Amino acid sequence: MNVTKDFFIMLSQNRMLNGAAKRWGLKLGAQSVVAGTTVDEMVESIRKLNASGISATIDNLGEFVFDKEEALQAKLQILAVIEVIHQHNLDAHISLKPTQLGLDVDYDFCLENLREIVSAAHEYGIFVNFDMEDHSHLQPSFDILDELHKDYDNVGTVIQAYFFRAEEDIQKYKDYRLRIVKGAYKEPENLAYQTKEEIDANYIKLIEYHLLNGTFTSIATHDHHVINHVKKFVKEHEIPNDKFEFQMLYGFRKDMQLQLTKEGYNFCTYVPFGVDWYGYFMRRLAERPQNLNLIVKQTFNKKTNTMIGLGAGAFLLGRMTKKTKH
């Protein structure tokens, strides 16, 4: 059991701490990995990336919405981002989570919200990527993707390598533009690989399959071992650079992002912005210990440490309570 990962995932799901994060804002230190809380701040960040030859996928942060009004507000915000991409001629596309648009409220309600977004993006030739979430939302999200793909060709999604079903999914969706990730949620043993070795092996397997058989592959990783493997693989199989891109998160490994761009590879930075940044931030820390090392000096301050301290107390209390019950 990876206690560190469990700890940060627990923090990401804590509504009390999420509410506190919204009140405190990016003063907590997350400004190094979140591109601001406003559209104007996000646009400025993307302009800087574009000037360096880097494209962006924009995530107007939000998830696990259980209220229709909140979901409708999220839809309007994403529609506004689409307009901004078009008006400012940004090299960017949209990433969104179905739960942000009401998947937990009502399936048909969420479908229509997403249809409106995809349709608006389609008018401007803007791609929309569905970020996959935990296992309970996986199949409904794929179902919505299938429905929208009947009418629109500007949609794609994410394949999470830790799921046993990932190989079947990547074969089914090989004609889609796909982002391949390892996975950032805590999933049960009967549905997902649990060890780093198993997840890494499946991750490489999925990347290679889609590079050989798919349309366009977004390889989302900060791991230079994976990146070097992909470089060698595409060279050996004569896969052109316009068939894939590397992706990293905003604020992570900036030097490597620039270096890969200078080497002639397509590069896209995942740019999150907005007030609902807390869950995203904690899952990045949960994904791999190296992420914590990459940003700890530039991210943590007194308020951040206070929140994590409160979360640690709750986490340990929960574990002690479970042990007492057994």
Could you please describe the fold and organization of this structure?
InterPro entries: FAD-linked_oxidoreductase-like, PRODH_bac_arc, Proline_DH_dom, Proline_oxidase. Its cofactor is FAD. 54% of the residues lie in helices and 13% in strands. The protein is α/β, with parallel strands linked by helices. The chain has an eight-stranded parallel beta barrel with strand order 1-2-3-4-5-6-7-8, surrounded by seven helices.
Question: What labels describe this entry?
Answer:
alpha/beta; 8-stranded parallel β-barrel; 54% helix
Q: Topology of this protein?
A:
Blueprint: H1 3-12, H2 15-24, H3 39-51, E1 55-60, H4 68-87, E2 92-96, H5 107-123, E3 128-130, H6 135-149, E4 155-160, H7 166-172, E5 177-181, H8 196-213, E6 216-220, H9 224-236, E7 244-249, H10 254-262, E8 267-273, H11 278-287, H12 289-299, H13 302-325
Parallel strand pairs: 1-2, 1-8, 2-3, 3-4, 4-5, 5-6, 6-7, 7-8
Helix pairs in contact: 1-11, 4-5, 5-6, 7-8, 8-9, 11-12
Catalytic activity: L-proline + a quinone = (S)-1-pyrroline-5-carboxylate + a quinol + H(+)
Cofactor: FAD
InterPro entries: FAD-linked_oxidoreductase-like, PRODH_bac_arc, Proline_DH_dom, Proline_oxidase
